[in-house]
Design a protein that fits this description.
By secondary structure, the chain is α+β, with helices and mostly antiparallel strands. It is built from eight helices and eight strands; from the N terminus they run αβααββββααβαββαα.
Length: about 425
């Protein structure tokens, strides 16, 4: 498992082997040959995923739609102006006593300028539309967080797969060295066929594990490429640096989480809609002014006229208004329940993430010690086998123990990286 052990074993095998007895060493089959993979850092992976993911772009379009609806709601504060033009052609002019009351061909031009002088419901809709813009923006942040989290987890998966591949490669190197040593002893008449068969078996199994580890790396790299919307696999460039913040002393960290902010904004928007229910009972008023030009003028219709209209609509009875208010109150209470549930989930995620980081650090320290001890035990067992004090079955067992210890150590490091990422997410500090 350790490369520093190979010179000792290879030197012993060279002293025992005859000139034609050395077996040729073959390297494990490399992954598919081709152009080198693109390498990205952790920060680059997160940034590119959030820039290229179509879900993020859809969220941006939702913001533009909400802003357009807000502009439409603001139109209540602006007047409207419409122009009309029409020509009437009759079969003959109309009139009596020699006077023409309506010419055969008559053109009418007018324009109407109107303004809502009292529109409480539409005025309230303007603030409600502004709430929807805020919700759309926060929702886009939450979408961005989910996309970034997927990319980050894909990046960590590549690193974890590469660690397992490195362990498999070191294991096959050690297995081959022992196989060559067993072959050299057998050729020199100092070993046994059983020891050589065991060593050959362990080498073949180790080579199979290398191929399996290479496949896992390729799968992880493909998944990273998919999360970055790259047409091909992408490789990870180094371990991520995740700076952990000190434990929070209050609930202020909750406001940094996009999901909590989103549900808070939804509660505020629902509360505003419920509180604005009274505007449905307020009268609405419109003032309009219409100048008109007629050519040629008629007997009863002068060429130039104008009209001003003031209209007030008063709600007297509408059976749906009470039910509408109750629906809005229920929606507000439902939004509050969802917010309370999200806050409770967020606090649970924070406690679990903090506990996971603390325990994972202890597990990493313990597994590091176990891995170092298992490697040292393998070295001692190899020396004893080279000295003829034991058979290679003890070496095979020591190899398996050392390999398992290294695997557990690598898995513990991966869990620690995941725990740190989960803590940053729980605190609302990822992505930056």
């Amino acid at each position: 498992m350790s490369r520093r052990l190979l010179p000792l074993i290879l030197a012993a095998s060279a002293a025992l082997a005859s000139p034609g007895a050395a077996a040729a060493q073959t390297d494990p089959a490399p992954p598919s040959a081709g152009a080198p993979l693109e390498r990205v850092t952790f920060e680059q992976a997160v940034k590119r995923a959030t820039e290229r993911n179509p879900t993020v772009r859809q969220a941006a379009q939702a913001i533009l739609r909400a802003e357009a609806l807000l502009d439409r709601a603001k139109s209540v504060f602006h007047p409207t102006l419409y122009g009309n033009a029409g020509t009437t052609i009759l079969d003959a002019a109309r009139g009596f006593a020699g006077n023409i009351t309506q010419p055969r061909v008559q053109t009418v031009l007018n324009a109407t300028l109107s303004y809502s002088i009292l529109a409480a419901t539409r005025w309230a809709e303007k603030n409600q539309a502004a709430d929807q813009v805020a919700i759309a923006r926060i929702s886009a942040e939450e979408t961005r967080r989910q996309v970034a989290l997927t990319a980050a987890q894909s990046y960590l998966a590549v690193i974890a797969a590469q660690r397992q591949r490195d362990i498999a490669v070191r294991n096959v190197d050690t297995a081959r060295a022992l196989d060559e040593y067993a072959m050299a002893r057998l050729d020199a008449g100092k070993g046994s066929r059983l020891n050589h068969v065991r060593s050959t078996q362990e080498t073949a199994v180790a080579e199979g594990r290398v191929q399996l580890a290479e496949l896992a790396v390729s799968q992880a790299q493909e998944a990273l490429g998919v999360s970055l919307f790259v047409d091909g696999p992408v490789d990870a460039d180094g371990d991520p640096e995740m700076q952990l913040a000190p434990p929070p002393s209050s609930d202020a960290w909750l406001e940094q989480r996009p999901d909590v902010r989103l549900f808070t904004a939804q509660v505020q928007a629902a509360d505003r809609v419920a509180r604005n229910s009274w505007t449905s009972w307020v009268p609405s008023g419109i003032a309009s002014f219409t100048p008109q030009y007629v050519t040629p003028p008629g007997f009863f219709v002068p060429a130039k006229t104008w009209a001003a209209v003031f209209q007030l609509e008063i709600p007297i009875y509408d059976g749906s208004l009470g039910a509408t208010k109750r629906v809005r109150v229920a929606e507000r209470e439902t939004a509050q329940i969802r917010l309370d549930a999200v806050k409770g989930q967020a606090r649970s995620e924070l406690r679990l993430a903090q506990e996971s980081v603390s325990r994972s650090q202890q597990i990493v320290a313990s597994n590091r010690t176990a891995s170092e001890s298992a490697t040292e035990a393998l070295r001692i067992t190899e020396i004893a086998y080279r000295a003829g004090a034991t058979s290679n079955i003890e070496v095979v067992q020591a190899q398996q123990t050392a390999r398992n210890a290294e695997i557990e150590f690598a898995q513990a490091e991966d869990r620690l990286r995941q725990a740190r990422l989960d803590l940053l997410v729980a605190l609302g500090q990822f992505p930056q």
